[in-house]
Write a structure and sequence with these properties.
2 domains, MetI-like fold, single chain, mainly alpha, 73% helix, 325 residues
């Protein structure tokens, strides 16, 4: 098991290098260090001396990927890409282009992101599984048919519709919760209720349809027919047999997204004014702050690889037929 985890972690290093390289190229195809300097200096007419000084202060005064003036390995190491990337693999995020400590910002902003993501995941999981079990109980009936139609409709609706509709109906018309904003401590609850509700509603269509498929696949297996032949009621068959065995793919699906909960939601946090990592990333993109963008993309990639490893490990815990070597 330990050897497998180490091997999977080592496989992730080339992936992280590739993701970091793609992020770097895509960012600097659109921007150049000179463009970044002009934006951060906030002047329409910036002198070449001011631009060069800003580039030196933020280590953008070297070639991007290849240094023609150097020789040997220095041709690649004495570049912006190498010097900015090597620190990421040491989890040293450094300072943003505006001078803020990125590591400190991540530590502060991950808690609002978790405050939205965890309740949305737990409540959504409970509701989706309950609805899916109900649909599976009434399979091949009009309830099953129209439930699937409703799920497809809910899946087809944009997340923006749920956000704007929820803000207008629940906040503006009914005045039940604030439209946007955030507070510390228990005062944050009133600002989190609406994003959590919208997050749950927005995921009902896809979640319920997915879990329904899992349950129907289990219902058609031999052990379920054997349980029915022994005289067990349909409720016991569903909850004691079908649900138990369907929890294997459900659990692994949940495990893979657990590390990504720290990253927050780009759209939700931005629209509701939640100071999480999602809005942090959007703000960095708008300001063309490459230091924050590359740090968030790298952190997201690390967490995704960690989620995949945890998924494989969770298989061995819930399914005794699977063993990792």
């Amino acid at each position: 098991m330990i050897a497998y985890i180490i091997r999977r972690a080592l496989y992730g290093i080339p992936i992280l290098i590739g993701v970091n390289l793609i992020t770097f190229v895509l960012f600097f195809v659109v921007n150049s260090p000179e463009d970044m300097a002009r934006m951060h200096l906030g002047m329409k007419r910036v002198t070449p001396e001011a631009i060069q000084k800003w580039k030196q202060e933020h280590d953008y005064d070297k070639p991007l990927l290849y240094n023609e003036s150097a020789s040997g390995f220095d041709s690649f190491s004495n570049t912006i890409f190498f010097e900015k990337s090597i620190k990421l693999f040491q989890f040293e995020f450094g300072s943003s282009d505006s001078g803020r400590d990125i590591g400190y910002d991540i530590g502060q902003r991950m808690w609002p992101s978790l405050a939205i993501a965890l309740p949305t995941l737990i409540v959504g999981l409970a509701i989706n599984i309950t609805f899916a079990l109900m649909i599976a109980f009434f399979r091949a009936t009009y309830i099953d048919y129209w439930s699937v139609v409703l799920c497809v409709v809910l899946m087809s609706v944009s997340a923006m519709f749920y956000i704007i509709g929820g803000q207008y109906f629940i906040s503006k018309l009914l005045h039940l919760v604030p439209i946007s904003g955030y507070d510390t401590g228990m005062g944050a609850i009133k600002f989190l209720i609406l994003p959590v509700i919208i997050g749950v509603i927005g995921g009902i269509g896809s979640g319920t349809r997915w879990y329904r498929t899992l349950f129907l696949e289990e219902i058609n297996k031999d052990y379920v027919r054997t349980a029915r032949s022994k005289g067990l009621s349909e409720n016991r068959v569903l909850f004691q047999h079908v649900l138990k065995n369907a929890m294997i793919p459900i659990l692994t699906g949940v495990v893979v997204i657990l590390p990504l909960l720290f990253m927050g939601s780009l759209i939700t946090e931005n629209f509701f004014g939640i100071p999480g990592l999602g809005s942090y990333t959007i703000e960095a993109i708008n300001r063309q702050d490459f230091a924050i963008v590359r740090s968030m993309v790298f952190l997201g990639s690390v967490l995704y690889i960690l989620g995949l490893i945890l998924t494989d490990v969770s298989y061995t815990l819930v399914d005794p037929r699977v063993r990792l070597s």
